[in-house]
Amino acid sequence: MVPSLLEHILHLLIISPLVFLSVKNKKRGTWEIILVFTIYFLIRSCLLHLPFEFHQANFIPGHWNWSGKIMAVGSSVLFLIVYRKFKLNDYFLTFKQNPVFLKKGVAIITLLLLIGSAISYIYSTPKEWNLETILFQLTMPGIDEEIAYRGIMLGLLTQVLKPGIRLSKYLQFNPAILVTAILFGFAHGFFITDSYSIVFKVYPVLRTMILGYIWGWITIKSGSVLLALISHNLGNVSDQLIRMR
């Protein structure tokens, strides 16, 4: 459990300079929200990996981490019940969409699905049909990760970070989206092993970081995590279906 905890602390330390440089102000309330963000991130991440450390925590058998995902979702639900400072809308946890952006949002997630499917078809390695894989990818990753990264984490950071930082006349980024996208990328390819070795897989990190930024941008523009969640799960399951062709 110690390597896993150190891994998540390292992720936070790497993004901390970006967070501190992007804060709207340095009032006490700002640091309290950042502390809440940190605690939530660590608890959810540890619960997600708990079944890998303790067999007793793996209460749903299978090839995929059902137990960890359910505990991670549970931690998000508990957070929303206990920490009542903001409304669900502030975490983008609503079905209501910005009607002005809806058509554009649907077009973007459709394009992402087509591009992802083409890449999977060209570069993926064929595998055998597995119903558990399809059911898992159709549900758990999007539900857990979108509520966490594009919901709670993005919602907290948008309260305390500047809405945009301009690098040049044509280049501007949203620090809250970028921070959550980096953490999302790290979760898919930046690990500390049981022997305390650091593993950094460039392609998975960059791929999920880019997707995380796009999904974060869609979430803020649409006002809801719904489109990102749909895009996430459809992308995952289409990738698996193509591999099982």
Description:
The protein has 245 residues and is mostly helical. The chain has one domain. It has 8 helices and 4 strands. It has helices at residues 2-22, 28-53, 66-82, 99-123, 131-160, 175-187, 202-222, 226-243, and strands at 165-166, 172-173, 190-192, 198-200. A two-stranded antiparallel ribbon has the order 1-2. β3 and β4 (198-200) form a beta hairpin.
What are the main properties of this structure?
245 residues; mainly alpha; two-stranded antiparallel sheet
Q: How many structural domains does the protein architecture include?
A: 1
**Average residue-wise pLDDT:** 93
Q: Based on CA inertia axes, which overall geometry fits?
A: globular
Provide the gyration radius in Å: 18 Å
